[in-house]
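> run fold DUF3108 domain-containing protein
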Amino acid sequence: MRHAIGATTPLMSILILTSALVGVSNRAFASDELAKPLDLPLASCNRISHYAIYLSGIHTGTMSRTETWQGKTAVVSSESKASILGIGTQYQQRAELSWSDSTHEWLTDNFHQKVTGFRSRDMRASFKEAGLESRVDIDGEIDTYSSKTIPIRDVDTLAIQIREYLLQGRKQFALIRQASDAIEPYQLYVQELQSENIAPWGELSLIPVEQTGAEDVTYYFAPALDYQLVKARYHGFILHGLIELDSYTSTCE
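> ok
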């Protein structure tokens, strides 16, 4: 069983941005409140987001993300295409996630990821023990990983869980992402609300969430757009990545 903590390259981090200390909340919740998500779609619905990808200020590709909801379960399909430093890369992922009534959080059930071009791979991961154990198959090579207290999630479930924590009013929390060859721990800190002009919506209030740990990223969520991820900045030593929302539609009430 592998437990090593590794880092992904800056190029792949830009493409997969759509992620021991217990989170500190500024609100108190009754047990019946925690038994369900704070914003649960009551019927089948979809949320569709399209992002532009930038590397050091240069537009390099696009990313799309579709959330298909059915009560306490969802399927998230993501796809990105980019040409970075002359390297053409395509990323596709399908993740299944569900709400845990016992731990009161969103957990990844499984995901399938395919990358062509830079660092090509076919990766499948499944999770058990409330997300504390994972089994990863990359091109036929199998490894297992474990976490003592914090569930391991894919990048899409990570974003959904961050949104859930924002709805709860939390200001600080820890998350772990399943990377291709390691699990990556993060600490996240919610910053003060700020305003920014984002086309085509105009002036929006944004909640910045700073992530430190295996990767330094700042996420920006917009309460006026269902608390969706509007942009994310990857803070690299040499390369700086950005994804920014350019269209969003939702049938979820």
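The two ends are 43 Å apart (CA to CA).
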